[in-house]
Structure formats: structure tokens, C-alpha cells
Design brief:
By secondary structure, this protein is mostly helical. The chain has helices at residues 38-41, 43-70, 75-94, 135-139, 141-151, 164-179, 184-204, 226-230; strands at 20-24, 117-121. It has one domain. The radius of gyration is 18 Å and the shape is globular. The protein starts with 19 loop residues before the first strand and ends with a helix.
Length: 234
């Protein structure tokens, strides 16, 4: 008896698009065994991302003071920080944050329209000057607990983790080795969990005042996403 897999339905959207959109296309076919050495192949990216992460942190602090006094996130800093998130998502998608593609990630902060993993953050014209003092630590604490479970502790993008995402990706990798296919149910869940993490990162990085939802949006594309629209949707 053959079971037909029906992709998880997209969550309904109310109002405008969310500040952050995370989209992914599952490549096929995927190598059965390349995932065993992606930790090695991702090392150059991890080195660069470690350096970029330092700049990201420093510039986020600068942005915090700018928001506190002006209510605006400096545009240049915003574009740089979004680029770092975008780069990190591509590397995580290629390696052990998803294993959703065998295409080597490009070394760039810019959006790459034809890469199967994309991330965008809408620039906020105005941000609360009061929230900037509490949202990155006090308000985000409930989400930090969830993210700790999902990631299992700190990791540089692309490196293995013992969190829930890492466990699911390992299951997907073993299944890929034996069947040559990525289990679509696991793919939908892995992308949804990564989306949750990245929403929290964007909020804690002061890029938006919209509190991340306690909701698991499954699947490769978010409804209303400009990324999914330009790529033809899912």
C-alpha cells in the first residue's frame, strides 16, 4: 500500500507579512554520503562566520543606542546584520542545520536568489525606544528556553548540535543514506524549527518590535513571503 505524503499546510496569515521570512527548497537528488564530510567542507564558512558574529554583536550594541536615542535602526548596520543572518542560514541549510542541499554556500552577505535557502528581514521605519532596553533579554526569556531545547546550546552555523534540530537532521541523514531520499515530514519540521530560532534571533537583535509567535510554521515557505513569491512558491 502506497502512502501519499501531503505537505504541511501553511499557517494562516493575518495582516501584513511577518518581519522575517525564512524559505527553503529541498534539493533532489541529494548525495547519500556527502553529509558525512560537510563538517569539514563548512570549516571555511564557520571561520568567517565566527569573525562576522563578533562584528554582528558589536554593531547590534551600537544599533541599540541609536534606537534608544532616535527610534531608528541605522540602515547600514541593519543591512550588514541581515547579511550575516542570511549567510549563516545558507551554511546551516547546507550543513547540519538541515542538510537540505548539496550546493556549496556562496561567500557573500547579499541575497542569492537562486540558492535554495533564503532569508529576508523587512527594514523597520520606526522602533520603540523603550522596548529596546528589555526585549533582547527580559521579554525574550521564554523563547530562549525553547531555542535552548531546539539547538542544544551554542553552536557556530554549520556545526553539529545535540538539540532537537540536530537529532532530527541526524535521523534525516541516516534515512538519506539508506533510501537516497530526505523524509519530507522531517524536512518540514526541521525548517519550521529553524524558522522559530531565526525569528527569535531577529527579535533579540532588535530588528523588529513584533514579538515572535509561539507557533511552529512548518514547510519550506512562509505564506506571503517575498522570497517564495520570487521563487514561484512551494
Amino acid at each position: 500500500m502506497t502512502t501519499t505524503y501531503i505537505p504541511a499546510p501553511a499557517a494562516p496569515v493575518s495582516g501584513a507579512r511577518r518581519p522575517l521570512t525564512v524559505d527553503a527548497e529541498l534539493d533532489a537528488p541529494l548525495s547519500r554520503w556527502l553529509w558525512l564530510v560537510k563538517w569539514l567542507l563548512a570549516i571555511p564558512h564557520c571561520v568567517v562566520l565566527s569573525l562576522l558574529s563578533v562584528a554582528y554583536f558589536v554593531l547590534t550594541v551600537v544599533a541599540m543606542f541609536a534606537i534608544l536615542f532616535t527610534g531608528r535602526y541605522p540602515r547600514g548596520i541593519f543591512e550588514f546584520n541581515v547579511g550575516v543572518l542570511r549567510w549563516g542560514w545558507r551554511v546551516a541549510y547546507y550543513s547540519y542545520g538541515s542538510l537540505g542541499t548539496d550546493r556549496y554556500p556562496p561567500f557573500t552577505l547579499a541575497d542569492v536568489p537562486d540558492y535554495p535557502a533564503r532569508l529576508e528581514v523587512a527594514y523597520p521605519e520606526h522602533l520603540s525606544r523603550g522596548l529596546v532596553l528589555v526585549k533582547w533579554w527580559l521579554l525574550a526569556i521564554p523563547h530562549y528556553i525553547v531555542v535552548g531545547i531546539l539547538l542544544g546550546g551554542y553552536r557556530v552555523a554549520g556545526t553539529p548540535s545535540l538539540g532537537l534540530i540536530g537529532v532530527l537532521v541526524l535521523i534525516a541523514a541516516v534515512a538519506l543514506a539508506f533510501t537516497g531520499a530526505y523524509l519530507p515530514e522531517i524536512f518540514d519540521l526541521v525548517i519550521g524549527l529553524n524558522r522559530w530560532v531565526l525569528r527569535v534571533v531577529a527579535y533579540a537583535s532588535l530588528m523588529t518590535d513584533e514579538y515572535p509567535p509561539f507557533r511552529l510554521d512548518l514547510g519550506g515557505h512562509e505564506p506571503g513571503s517575498p522570497v517564495s513569491e520570487t521563487s514561484g512558491g512551494s
